[in-house]
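Sequence in, structure out.
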Amino acid sequence: MPYTRHSVHVVYYTSVKSTMDVAFNHTKIIDKKPVLILAEEQTEGRGRNEPVWHSPKGGLWGTYAIPLTKALSKEQLTFFHYGANIAVVRVLKQLYKIEADIKWPNDIFWSNKKLGGILLEYISGNQFFLLVGIGLNTNIRNSDFPPAIREFVISMQDILKLGISNKELALHIYDQLHSILLLIQKNKFSNIIKEYNKKCTYFKKRLKLDDNNEYFCLGINKVGKLVLEGNKQKVYLKIDDSDTIIKGKNTS
């Protein structure tokens, strides 16, 4: 279905275990056309490194299956991961004037509380696909979350005091993803680095790692690693190293 500048076919489900799993199955049958899987709820939604993602009715739970004409390099994949977060932040500002931030590497935050997140998977072989999972707390109230996590999360309903169209939001995000992917495929990373660092909650902050030492965050560099400067050394973290950060301090 055409929308704004680009085209993506939307498939709706009432309830699924995970939109990522459904999107993966669709890559086996779709004819190289982008597909967006949207579900009213996920019963086994997951985030990066397999944590459970609370996905009740009302939120935006979806996965984009984006076909590629050729393989992406490891560096391109890293920067598309960052770019996907930028896409969400851009749209939240453009449509709803929500100034969201990004907690490295893939969580969307507002006022120090989690608003959503991105999950990226890459399929290679006879065909190449990007699966971009997105979870956003849209039309949910804080009271809809389990008591144990309420103080750590927030929703667009809480922020805006009104409901929004999940479909409209998802399609605008797809437009941004498409534009960013074109830059990634041309290895144009500089603007992504600048924009990501500007929105990153760790940038120019002090962090404590699991080595019990403190470091000053210099942001992501030209190869996509998060650079931390300590008293004795610099540390370069890959996306998969995010669990080594145990505490972020709000001091510059």
